[in-house]
Design the sequence.
DNA sequence: TATATAATAGGATCAAATCCTAATAAGGGG
DNA sequence: CCCCTTATTAGGATTTGATCCTATTATATA
């Protein structure tokens, strides 16, 4: 008996998928709304375990707590420094970079995190309307 | 009177420069060895302030606490998952990527973090010698 | 269905980071 | 060169994301 498919685990994974790059706390709040009996430690443990098992990505993004991402294909992220939103960027540039690094630095590269920081179109629009008002 | 050049600040910045991508705690320990009267909160505050002022980079790297880097020119990082070492990779690929993102996603990109994870040449050698032994 | 044990609930605990306030000292003005 | 304003620090309290601990629960196999 290796791994059990528990109700808690299903609810937690559903929450990750239905939210947008949520933090563990955000997942916990969503899960609480569905079943208040599910404990914080279960949420943190399941997220950690699933990330360690490669079922989720665990993202370290400047200025926020860790985020979780069910999208496993190679991609980048971008965070708006105004509204805090994190978005996927489906590009595979990192793969080319990884092989460059292998050659030039002698590392075996296993994984690559690329995070852009900036201002999203929505927040740019808002800033502009304030300026022109 | 805008900003003061204090002895504590000088010691802390020297420590960051003499260490290799140190965490705040590593800086604190180095600083303690020089002057045990300098408090932990001063170290954390100075590092945060200098990072916010753009005098240092603050790196969020998976599986470790924040690291600080006095190198301000655009570059990437790589972390060995065996020994934990963090190295600079002086490449400017991120700049090209940033302008791509501006075009395709409408963001104003201000900054980009690129972190590779893998195994450094030293740790690879050790692994090999164990295997062949 | 019975049972061995993986997984959870809930609280305790840990550590990085921040906050608070009286005391200190940097550095510009006189 | 010294004084005075106030930015900065020391030191401890506090916050918070995350992990750990243990009795209890419930999954999945025989």
Sequence:
């Amino acid at each position: 008996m290796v791994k059990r498919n528990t109700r808690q685990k299903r609810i937690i994974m559903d929450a990750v998928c239905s939210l947008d790059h949520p933090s563990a706390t955000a997942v916990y709040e969503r899960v609480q709304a569905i079943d208040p009996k599910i404990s914080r430690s279960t949420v943190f443990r399941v997220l950690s375990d699933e990330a360690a098992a490669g079922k989720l990505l665990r993202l370290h993004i400047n200025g926020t707590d860790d985020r979780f991402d069910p999208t496993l294909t190679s991609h980048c992220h971008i965070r708006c420094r105004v509204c805090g939103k994190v978005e996927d960027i489906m590009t595979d540039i990192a793969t080319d970079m990884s092989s460059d690094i292998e050659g030039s630095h002698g590392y075996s590269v296993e994984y690559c995190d690329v995070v852009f920081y900036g201002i999203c179109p929505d927040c740019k629009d808002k800033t502009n309307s304030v300026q022109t008002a």
User: Anything to note?
Assistant: Residues 1, 4-7, 23-25, 40-41, 44-45, 48, 65-66 of chain B lie near DNA strand C (CB under 10 Å from a C1'). Chain B touches chain A through 36 residues (CB under 8 Å).
